[in-house]
Amino acid sequence: MFKSMLTTAAAKANLMDGMRAASASAIMLLVGCALHAPDFSWAAIGAFWTSLATAPQTARSRLASMLSFAVLSTLGGGLAIYAASLGAAAAALTILFFVTVAGLTRIWGDQPYQVAILAATACVVMVDHPAAGGASGYAYLGLYLLGCLFAAALSTVLWQIHPSAPEYPHDRWHQAAVQSARGALRQLRAHASLSSDGVHFALRLGVATTAAYLTVHVLELPCGYWATMAVLLILQPSAAGTLPRSVERALGTVVGTLIAVAIGELAHTPLTIALAVFPLIGLTMALRPVGYSVFVAFLTPSFVLVADYAMPAIDYNYAMARLENNLLGSAIAIAATLILWPLTERVKK
Asked: Is 72 within the bounds of a domain?
């Protein structure tokens, strides 16, 4: 049985995508090492998130999704940084707006929603980062945009991954017909989704994420943006989707936290962290199709190491703070699913 699971995981994994995403982030960190500029961790984060926002269908869709994410997250991040300088109330209203709008993009399909929700994730991280506000916040934003654009260039120009099988004219005709049919279905789904349920989901997502932000600020919890990120990435349109996803994220976060602590005991310099990031991000991207808990297990140490590149000191208490915030975000997401408009959600098969 275990061998069968490994075979299935290997079949679903995309190693080339993983290596490309890992290269984009690791190169940014290595540049930071060479320039003695630890703030390049933001460039690595931008490259990492842009890789996650990639649309796999065609080179054109890949470029469109990556550039859309780069523009949306940078502009949104700039507004979030400015809002944070005005106080917690302004920051909370900014989060409510961005996340609610991101939730509404579900009516256009999974890929636009993925780009929008990742852009919203960037906003909630930037609004809660210690360096947010003032000139230093915008300097971080510039490095972040550099990482986004580098990942897009690497994916679409410098290192394109072509399908192994040749494409024949009748295949193109068939694909065009399929895309046309899918487009029509998307339009019908968009029309149907623009109902109370679709709006309720977007509002639920916005309210829950804002509640997480205010909670961590009132309690003065360190690494609070992990709670807001957890709400964004866990909350689904129905309780049937939110509950298992929260369990998967909790399990993945526990494993990922242990990995981060173990690596933190060995990696004490920016260079060793940059070298450790490469296989972790590669596995995060490659194993994303395998399962959400596996994805989170490698995503957690990847993001911890990149985010803490400027201060490489990952001890047990520091990692546990992130785990606790993830669990808090999961609890808020579940509560929001059960409390906010719970009876209006249709069961989606």
From this structure: yes
Task: Please give the residue range of the domain that contains residue 225.
Answer: 14-159+197-339
Query: Domain count of the chain?
Result: 1
**What gap in Å lies between CA 78 and CA 83, rounded to an integer?**
9
pLDDT of 292 higher than 50: yes
220 and 337 in contact (C-beta within 8 Å)?
no
**What CA–CA distance (Å, rounded) separates 90 from 104?**
22
> Which of 116-120, 123-127, 237-241, 308-312 shows the lowest per-residue confidence on average (mean pLDDT)?
308-312
pTM equals 0.78
- Enclosing H/E stretch for 167: none
- Residue labelled with tokens 């992990």: 226
Residue ranges of E strands in 14-171: none
pLDDT for 40-67, tens place per residue?
888 988 998 998 887 666 777 888 889 9
Tally Cβ neighbours within 10 Å of residue 122.
27
Asked whether 108 and 10 are in contact (CB, 8 A), the reply is no
Q: What is the pLDDT of residue 74?
A: 93
Asked if 48 and 302 touch (Cβ cutoff 8 Å), the reply is yes
Structure tokens at 348: 């989606």
Angle between helix 316-339 and helix 225-234 axes, rounded to 10 deg: 40
* Integer Cα distance of 253 and 242 in angstroms: 16
Query: Does the residue 8 lie in any domain?
Result: no
Mean pLDDT over residues 28-43, rounded? 86
What letter represents residue 342's amino acid? P
User: DSSP per residue over 254-316, as a string?
Assistant: HHHHHHHHHHHHH--SHHHHHHHHHHHHHHHHHTTTT-HHHHHHHHHHHHHHHHTTTS----H
CA-based diameter of the chain, in Å?
A: 61
Q: Judge whether 171 lies within some domain.
A: no
Mean pLDDT throughout 166-192? 43
Higher pLDDT, 39 or 315: 39
Q: Per the domain annotation, does 95 fall within a domain?
A: yes
